[in-house]
Design brief:
Radius of gyration: 27 Å
Bound molecules: zinc ion
Shape: rod-shaped
Largest sheet: 3 strands, antiparallel
Oligomer: single chain
Order of helices and strands: EEHE
Strand order of the largest sheet: 2-1-3
Structural class: mainly beta
Number of helices: 1
């Protein structure tokens, strides 16, 4: 897992790679910029995957059949 943190000292943001177990145990990442441990995790908006697949509005047109004009089928 990758967790995003921001340094409270210098506002630097950085990624911390840790396992879920490590995260649960509590990790204190150091700021790579100034070495401060005054960091806070950033809970970004993860998982905003808009899916507009409900259909609607698309008309496939009339089915082919006898009496249809040229160009049918
Ligand atoms: Zn810093």
């Amino acid at each position: 897992m990758t967790y995003e943190y921001r340094c409270k000292e210098c506002e630097q943001t950085f990624d911390v790679i840790a396992t879920v177990a490590e995260k649960a145990a509590g990790i204190e990442p150091e700021c790579p910029e100034c070495g401060s441990k005054e960091t806070a995790q950033i809970f970004g908006a993860v998982g905003i995957l808009s899916s507009t697949g409900s259909g609607g509005g698309f008309d496939p047109g009339p089915p082919c059949g006898p009496g249809m004009g040229a160009g049918c089928c």
